[in-house]
Amino acid sequence: MPKSPSSRRGSLGAAAETPAGARNVREPPPPPGCTGRFLILLAEEEDRAAVPVLRNVAGLRVARSGDYAGRPALAALDEADGLVLDELRVAVVHAPPDALQVLAAADARAGILAVEPERVVHALPHGAVGIPEHPIGGPAEAGAAGSAVAAAYLRGYRDGVNDLTGRLLRGMPAADAPMAEAPAFAEAEFTWGLQATRAGFSTWSGRGVRVAVLDTGLDLGHPDLGGRPVEAVSFVAGEGPEDGHGHGTHCIGTACGALSPRQPPRYGVAGGAEILAGKVLDSRGRGEDAGILAGIDWALTQGCAVVSLSLGAPVRLGDPPSAVFEQVGRRALRRGTLLVAAAGNESRRPDEVRPVGHPANCASIMAVGAVDRNLQVAWFSCAGLDPRGGQIDVAAPGVAVRSAWPGAQLYATLDGTSMAAPHVAGIAALLAEADPSARGYALWALLVQNARRLPLPARDVGAGLVQAP
């Protein structure tokens, strides 16, 4: 069952940017990691006064997502002071100081349940954890297109790579330290992740189950996706749903990749599932809470059983989880949709272990830690350190994970809890096909109950290694 939720009201940060037409008030910049906008949690009942409070009392010009059928609702933030996401009952607003004071003073009777700053989120916080493999056949055989894709990716990550080697060495045992014998994971037919989770041997494929992956988009021309039901929508201004980064294609490949890929081994868990690719992170792997929430709102309207979130932001030990995302997770579960999120890559084990990041630290969102092919905790995987919440729920393969990649390269091998989360999302789709009544809380319970127990601390792996039916 989901973790014990926290009922704390979100705290207010610095004032947001002054919306168009408002008084010219000098405002401090937003705190680090925040955008300057605010998230407003509204009561679920439509007859509550929350929207009138936003409009008539706080003086904000707000639009509603239901009025943007056929086009991205986030465009409203360029035209108005705020946007109400109708399915989630969450608003994203630009609020000047006087309006913010009104909203902070409002209470549940006015339909305003929480107000908190909007955060900046990333696909892979603090640089790349993994490096893509060479194109199939090697660089010389890949041609100029494949080399260009690889070069563009490496240029985008070179600052992180310069720092990566030292961090890796600090997180690995000494050269003469004894190593546990690795399980026999020959990858001729299935990746080691599909073997460890038994997904490669499952008789289920996720057929008929809708899985949304909110990330950097998808390579819609990837040969392993031919003939598959795919819906792709961008929630990033100025960018279409195509993946200009790579992270999204890799995550979608792990969750829902082909049962018979162009190049073996098979790497996709739920090869029969219907794919919904929501682009909420730009070509640099950067995004905002508003994009994630809009993507979740969309996934609910599309009837998705699972939403995979390989993204987030680091938190400090003791920071309360987002009250908005906590309620979003609960509302999604009640609607029959499970949110699965990567725990974060900020740890540098064994010297430094960091807490589960946002939004995975919310009690109602399933947090996924990463293990390597020795079934040991990955050196970068965050842990459940706060006794008030934010623990790991399950673990999944997250080291040396091979999956799809955009362009001529086709495939890449990466590390990260970002790679672990889509394993769980895919297995949730298998369980949802096996038991059509298992949705929301019931699907969460099946994932936890069927997990393989590991001789590792629960703070690192939760109930254990997720297993396919």
Automatic annotation (TrEMBL):
<dbReference type="InterPro" id="IPR023828">
    <property type="entry name" value="Peptidase_S8_Ser-AS"/>
</dbReference>
<dbReference type="InterPro" id="IPR023827">
    <property type="entry name" value="Peptidase_S8_Asp-AS"/>
</dbReference>
<dbReference type="Pfam" id="PF00082">
    <property type="entry name" value="Peptidase_S8"/>
</dbReference>
<feature type="active site" description="Charge relay system">
    <location>
        <position position="418"/>
    </location>
</feature>
<dbReference type="InterPro" id="IPR036852">
    <property type="entry name" value="Peptidase_S8/S53_dom_sf"/>
</dbReference>
<dbReference type="InterPro" id="IPR000209">
    <property type="entry name" value="Peptidase_S8/S53_dom"/>
</dbReference>
<keyword id="KW-0645">Protease</keyword>
<dbReference type="InterPro" id="IPR050131">
    <property type="entry name" value="Peptidase_S8_subtilisin-like"/>
</dbReference>
<protein>
    <submittedName>
        <fullName>S8 family serine peptidase</fullName>
    </submittedName>
</protein>
<keyword id="KW-0378">Hydrolase</keyword>
<feature type="domain" description="Peptidase S8/S53">
    <location>
        <begin position="206"/>
        <end position="464"/>
    </location>
</feature>
<dbReference type="InterPro" id="IPR015500">
    <property type="entry name" value="Peptidase_S8_subtilisin-rel"/>
</dbReference>
<feature type="region of interest" description="Disordered">
    <location>
        <begin position="1"/>
        <end position="31"/>
    </location>
</feature>
<keyword id="KW-0720">Serine protease</keyword>
<feature type="active site" description="Charge relay system">
    <location>
        <position position="247"/>
    </location>
</feature>
<comment type="similarity">
    <text>Belongs to the peptidase S8 family.</text>
</comment>
<feature type="active site" description="Charge relay system">
    <location>
        <position position="215"/>
    </location>
</feature>
